[in-house]
Amino acid sequence: MFDGMFRKGVDGVTAPIGRGLAAIGLSADMLTAGGLVMSGASAVAIGSGRLGLGTAFLVVTALADLFDGPVAVARGTSSSRGAFFDSTADRVTDGLLLGGIAWYLASEHGGHIAVLPMAVLGVSAVISYERAKAELLGFVAKGGLMERAERTVVLAVAVAFEVLLIPLLWVLLVLSVVTAVTRFAKVWRQASASPSK
After folding, report:
1. 90 classed as catalytic
2. Domains and CATH numbers, the chain
3. Considering 65, 68, 86, 90, which one is annotated as catalytic?
């Protein structure tokens, strides 16, 4: 949804900031790597029950992910290698953050509730795989209610307000399943119309 509805407006804000970050010597790879490190710090903080600190690190992670692309464009270093690094870092970040939340829930609540963030992680992986595989086959699989940007925002709010953590994880799971099904149907229709692919 973010990619389709708000991308132009966001690009208008992030592009000049990206140029500023590039001007002070930051590279896209530095931001991607920094975001990855911050996601690990966030996971550790969340897992140990320090949710405020975990939220702060999560926000830094999200900002690094938001600006690595604009910095690459500003520096003229956009490449397949950078896109691969960014995409791989995104998957690792998802695993770290949701793993940290699972650890926290297991420690604080016990029972089976720790499986909930792992279910979100599983469906998120399907959403990402659908897009990657579809693009490899020449189809379009963007869109849906819960793309990565939306998932990150919901996670940040959930961690920041502990009382909302479990309810928002359920919302995240349901909307992620809807997104996965929507993407599957979208690619299925394209593939059915192009049997040669």
Report:
1. yes
2. 2-193 (1.20.120.1760)
3. 90
